[in-house]
Design brief:
Blueprint lengths: L4 E7 L3 H14 L2 E7 L2 H9 L13 E4 L8 H9 L3 H4 L3 E6 L4 H8 L5 E4 L4 H12 L3
Parallel strand pairs: 1-2, 1-3, 3-4, 4-5
Helix pairs in contact: 2-3
Length: 138
């Protein structure tokens, strides 16, 4: 298993989904802290509100975001994230976690380099694969 992450952020308007994902991440002991947000606006403001992000030791290393949410949706979140400076984006892996396997959605997400695309539900296997792919040498 790769190193333990400091911070993971879950952004999903479905509180049951966030609860279950939070439980899974805690059970797998993959992060020191898991923060959940039901609104993408709040999550974005919390992480990158000033466009520079938090200090490195507070910056989440992994952010899961749902696509279909009221208010700011996952696509808007991705668009804002993609406009951040590269040195800010390099500190955080962004992973879309969605029920949508629609080709139009996967194609839209694929436009953003380095963004992972995972189908709900988040499972132990998917989490291990993501960690091995993106954090194994971290």
């Amino acid at each position: 298993m790769s190193k333990k992450l400091r911070n993971v952020v879950l952004v999903d308007d479905n509180e049951t989904t966030s609860f279950l994902n939070n439980r899974l991440l805690n059970r797998l002991n993959v992060a020191d802290q898991v923060l959940t947000f039901t609104r993408a606006e709040q999550a974005y403001q919390y992480i990158w509100g000033d466009g520079h992000g938090k200090p490195v030791d507070e910056m989440p290393e992994l952010v899961f975001v749902d696509l279909k949410m009221p208010g700011m949706d996952g696509f808007e979140f991705l668009k804002l994230y993609s406009s951040l400076p590269d040195d800010v984006k390099d500190k955080t892996v962004l992973a879309v976690l969605t029920t949508s396997m629609h080709s139009a959605d996967t194609a839209r997400v694929a436009q953003y380099s380095g963004v992972e695309y995972l189908a709900k539900p988040l499972t132990e296997e998917k989490m291990h694969k993501l960690l091995e792919k993106r954090f194994v040498n971290a």
